Amino acid sequence: MKQLWVLGLMVFAAPALAQTPGWMKPGPGQEATATSCAVCHTPDYIRMNSVFLTPEQWKAEVGKMRNVFGAPIDDATEKQILEYLGSNYAVRKP
Fold first, then answer.
1. What's the predicted TM-score (pTM) here?
2. Domain 2-88 is classified in which CATH homologous superfamily?
């Protein structure tokens, strides 16, 4: 019985968790980034780190999330996330 309650909660909570935060910049990969990252942590992590991470450092971060922490992100989704973060939330070094 407890498993059914948990399953029901997950079904009804999933749409709310998948909503893109209003502060995220629009663009290709926004939804994939919001939904993939929110599985483990708040998307605020993106904004927090955007002040100092370059595209290369975002690549390392997303790789760490996949390879070390086991984030369920496939190669195609990782590519979308990296393009989105690199275009919208990366520091450009001169």
1. 0.75
2. Cytochrome c-like domain (1.10.760.10)
